[in-house]
TrEMBL record:
<keyword id="KW-0067">ATP-binding</keyword>
<dbReference type="GO" id="GO:0000400">
    <property type="term" value="F:four-way junction DNA binding"/>
</dbReference>
<protein>
    <recommendedName>
        <fullName>Holliday junction branch migration complex subunit RuvA</fullName>
    </recommendedName>
</protein>
<feature type="domain" description="Helix-hairpin-helix DNA-binding motif class 1">
    <location>
        <begin position="72"/>
        <end position="91"/>
    </location>
</feature>
<dbReference type="InterPro" id="IPR012340">
    <property type="entry name" value="NA-bd_OB-fold"/>
</dbReference>
<keyword id="KW-0234">DNA repair</keyword>
<dbReference type="InterPro" id="IPR011114">
    <property type="entry name" value="RuvA_C"/>
</dbReference>
<dbReference type="GO" id="GO:0005737">
    <property type="term" value="C:cytoplasm"/>
</dbReference>
<dbReference type="GO" id="GO:0005524">
    <property type="term" value="F:ATP binding"/>
</dbReference>
<dbReference type="InterPro" id="IPR010994">
    <property type="entry name" value="RuvA_2-like"/>
</dbReference>
<keyword id="KW-0227">DNA damage</keyword>
<dbReference type="Pfam" id="PF01330">
    <property type="entry name" value="RuvA_N"/>
</dbReference>
<dbReference type="GO" id="GO:0048476">
    <property type="term" value="C:Holliday junction resolvase complex"/>
</dbReference>
<dbReference type="InterPro" id="IPR003583">
    <property type="entry name" value="Hlx-hairpin-Hlx_DNA-bd_motif"/>
</dbReference>
<keyword id="KW-0963">Cytoplasm</keyword>
<comment type="subunit">
    <text>Homotetramer. Forms an RuvA(8)-RuvB(12)-Holliday junction (HJ) complex. HJ DNA is sandwiched between 2 RuvA tetramers; dsDNA enters through RuvA and exits via RuvB. An RuvB hexamer assembles on each DNA strand where it exits the tetramer. Each RuvB hexamer is contacted by two RuvA subunits (via domain III) on 2 adjacent RuvB subunits; this complex drives branch migration. In the full resolvosome a probable DNA-RuvA(4)-RuvB(12)-RuvC(2) complex forms which resolves the HJ.</text>
</comment>
<keyword id="KW-0238">DNA-binding</keyword>
């Protein structure tokens, strides 16, 4: 893995930079915010991660290690690839994304291009336990968690106890969310519906 590159910026494009490292030019894809801090002819250090696909190898660069770590974490969620993870960092600073996931703020997440209501729910469900503690906002003020319906956790725990994965549970809960219009739904009935939904995929 290429964890970082340090060298002279020899070219800039709207979505990438070329950094000369010991005579080798590395093409590094980056967000507009990262690119804005670079200048042709100047030395820079970028924190990087290499994304390998069957037909390509793409190096992504970030101004901070925190941005890179969040970029990698976001891609562990269902349906999130490098493009969407990079879009998240182009729209929000890392702490804002982490905070939105931690407290269940769908409004912030749906501001990311390509993330709708269901996508935001999936990010929260799959990553909230791995996003790390977020206790303050960007100004240092305490964060007050946004209440999330308890039925989600109850159905998730029920499905996992029955042998389904967290990813399976997230898929079923996202599908059920549009049908729930009360604060205290019938959890056993929702669990049965989730089992029926997942049973069709087995």
């Amino acid at each position: 893995m290429i964890a970082s590159v340090r060298g002279t910026v020899i070219a800039l494009a709207p979505d990438a930079a070329v950094v000369d490292v010991g005579g080798v030019g590395y093409s590094v894809r980056a967000t507009p915010g990262t690119l804005a801090g670079l200048a042709t002819g100047r030395e820079t250090t970028l924190h990087t991660t290499l994304v390998v696909r069957e037909d390509s190898m793409t190096l992504y660069g970030f101004a901070t290690a925190d941005e890179r770590d969040l970029f990698e974490l976001l891609q562990t969620a269902s349906g999130v690839g490098p493009r969407l993870a990079q879009a998240a960092l182009a729209v929000h600073p890392p702490n804002a994304v982490r905070r939105a996931i931690a407290v269940g703020d769908q409004r912030v997440l749906t501001q990311i291009p390509g993330v709708g209501k269901k996508g935001a729910e999936r990010l929260i469900l799959e990553l909230k336990d791995r996003i790390g503690p977020v206790t303050c906002d960007d100004d240092g003020a305490p964060v007050s968690p946004v209440a999330r319906p308890m039925w989600r956790e109850q159905v998730q725990q029920g499905l996992i106890a029955l042998g389904w994965t967290q990813k399976d549970a997230a898929t079923a809960i996202t599908a059920l969310a549009d049908t729930v219009d009360t604060e205290r739904p019938n959890v056993p009935e929702l669990l049965k519906q989730a089992i029926r939904l997942l049973g069709k995929t087995r």
